[in-house]
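User: I'm writing a short methods note and want a consistent example. For Major facilitator superfamily (MFS) profile domain-containing protein, I'll paste the sequence; you return only the structure tokens, no commentary, since I'll be parsing the reply automatically.
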Amino acid sequence: MDMTEANLDADHHDKQQGWPAVAAGSAIFFMYLGLTYSYGIVQLHLTRQGLAPPSTLSFIGSVGAALAPLTGMLVARVMRRIGYRRTACLGSLLLGLGEFTAGWSTSSVPAMFITQGVLFGLGASLLFLPAATVPSLWFKRKRGLATGIVYGGAGVGSAVISLSMEKLIQTSSIRTAMKILGAAAWAVCLPASYFLTAPTPTGSDALTAPTTSIFTIRFLLMLVMGAIATFPLFVPPFLLPLYVTSIGLSSQMASWVLAAWNLASALGRVGMGLGADTLLGPVNSLFLALAVTGVSTIALWPFASSPGLLVCFAILNGIGSGGFFSLMPVVVGAVFGDGQLASVMSRLTTSWTFGYFLGSPIAGYLLDAYGGTEAGLAAFRPAFSYSGSLTLAGAGLVLAVRFMLEKRIFTRV
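Assistant:
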């Protein structure tokens, strides 16, 4: 049985076997990326406590986010040795441990780096690749939808967790909130990890090391695109709470705007996945996602000084940003074939490391350099320009890959 037959067979039996893996991946992303994208709430309250300036605190969240792409190739080797399920179980233990112990670390920047940064990030790295790739291995025709549902869990989780975290902090303390969320990460991710198993015909193939044939112009363009596009993608969720309060709105409004961004991100992940399966195709959908993100950041966010405009920006930007992450596995399958999905993804995501690690701190440094949160809207505009321009540059590289695959403009690719 060749790879196409295996995937088509998986589609035929998806209700019995593939959908539990999709549900498990979605539950894991609900917690893992939900906690990652809600770090802006933690940063807001730690800034108010005077622990450190936003640029320093952004590094803590960036460490937690950056370890997943940084260790992608290492995690692929771990998966080849112990399998998807055990890799995800180990990641669940470390993820919850990092969040839980951060509850004792909110008065120390070094302790926050170790707990919220390193421990949480190691757990995230062991969870990301299994949860992101296993559902795609079960599907051929519905791959975009399946992957969109998995990544959609992240958007829903980010909205739920950001609102819950703000409420928990208000009713108890930031320390108690982080301990509760750490325990919740164990309760959700450990059972979900059990269902992350690959179909037998494709599982072994998907974990083989790639050959040198993948190192083509297309691969290099995708590598550079990921490196550029991920710099700005965490800027909105990290800076939105600070921005909302800096223009005179409440922290509760900040959590609602962030929740709107996260819910829109969930819609974008599923909607862009459907577009990849049907009308647009995966590469066209990825270009659209990045274009919407970049244009909304440059053309709308600098003028969003009222709740209505803030919510409008959050919805548009969230849809585009969510689409990027959910479409990457689908685009990899379309451009490079299905046989080495996990291995190629692990190499491409390695280029995301610098963007994850430095993207938000650079925005934080720009904010500090132009007066900080006390300076209001004007201090944020350089960060907006930085974020939007890099996103549009990434969209341009995707467009170049698209025309390498198909030169006709109105063609599904």
